[in-house]
């Protein structure tokens, strides 16, 4: 078997391998190829620094890496790892990283990062053997907004991405797909809540599918959380939220109070190189 960069492979062939690798996964994966084109473009995937394991001409496993700067690090974020069933337990993920890390270093990457479902203990152990360590724990949600008491004593203003240049966001670091540098490349709307001429909260949403990418209050008070979700409810009744940091007690507590289903939990894992 041989490892090659994914810039050499037809996208349709890659997707066929990807979907086969994620059959019977912990959650149903979208099958629309265009979904992944859009998602990986947002994430800043670099196919030159993404790699596949090939058995003759057949791709049997892969690591798809997004490359971008976060704070002071140039990070290779693993946005998708998969091995088709008949090639598992052969150390392919280890071999892919063994091949990739020298190339990352050559291109100035200082850290590798990834997200993995907590219940996927085989994958967690495999990443630990490579040298990854758990850095964060995340919770994901999906469901209907059951906001009984709403407050509407505020103005909802649509803003642009320059909002993030003017404000210090309460959550210092969002996960890769929810980070502002990723969201800039996507189809998102930005909203600010204004009360008595002061901005009290904000959120970033894809109103087409109800995906809530960022949301927070500037003053952590129950009424401000109610105002925030009252505003979100104007946009959609059904929302999906990925990767809320488990350290954010107030945010998690308010989400739980609305009865939204906690679907999966994830680890963020990092490897400094």
TrEMBL record:
Gene3D superfamilies: 3.40.630.30. GO terms for molecular function: acyltransferase activity, transferring groups other than amino-acyl groups. Keywords: Acyltransferase, Transferase. Residues 1-152 form the N-acetyltransferase domain. InterPro entries: Acyl_CoA_acyltransferase (IPR016181), GNAT_dom (IPR000182), YpeA/RimI_acetyltransf (IPR050680). This is GNAT family acetyltransferase.
